[in-house]
Write a structure and sequence with these properties.
Elements (H helix, E strand, L loop, with lengths): L6 H22 L17 H20 L12 H6 L2 H12 L5 E11 L5 E9 L3 E8 L5 E9 L1
Antiparallel strand pairs: 1-2, 2-3, 3-4
């Protein structure tokens, strides 16, 4: 069948095939310029990623407890940075911690999945009168997408 086609049709078919191949290659090769979407989170052992998230959550908790508010949002997603500026972080943290007495220690760190399959790390902080839970929610790129403080028993 190929031999019976005129050369103009053969050329058109070859051009279409080559264009399709180059089009597929262009789609499969990621663009690394600053306008492209972020690269996916590296494929790492689940345990290593869990440890990294717990380290970030403990660091955020320490910054909150010790009133280093300007350093709290270092690991925030861009959306959370816009939604939760340092001024709001200060107000919320002070409203939760002012009646708890002095900070004593971080007593526990726990990782779990929430109802939306997000990775959540809960850091328990002991104060002289009661504990405060700092809950840090992470996105797929291990950036913080949510932050909550809650007094507990």
């Amino acid at each position: 069948m190929w031999k019976s086609l005129p050369s103009s049709q053969k050329t058109a078919i070859l051009v279409a095939i080559i264009s399709g191949i180059f089009g597929l290659i262009a789609v499969l090769i990621p663009r690394w310029d600053k306008d492209s979407s972020p690269a996916p989170a590296p494929v790492e052992d689940a345990w290593i990623r869990k440890e990294k998230r717990e380290t970030i959550a403990r660091k955020i908790s320490n910054h909150l407890i010790h009133k280093r508010y300007d350093e709290v949002n270092d690991d925030f997603s861009e959306e959370l940075k816009a939604y939760l500026p340092v001024s709001k972080i200060r107000i919320v943290t002070d409203s939760v911690t002012t009646t708890l007495g002095s900070f004593v220690e971080q007593t526990a760190t726990k990782s779990e999945k929430d109802g939306y399959n997000n990775n959540v790390v809960i850091v328990t902080n002991r104060f002289t009168t009661r504990n405060v839970l700092v809950m840090v929610i992470f996105d797929d790129y291990d950036k913080v997408r949510g932050l909550f403080l809650q007094p507990s028993q």
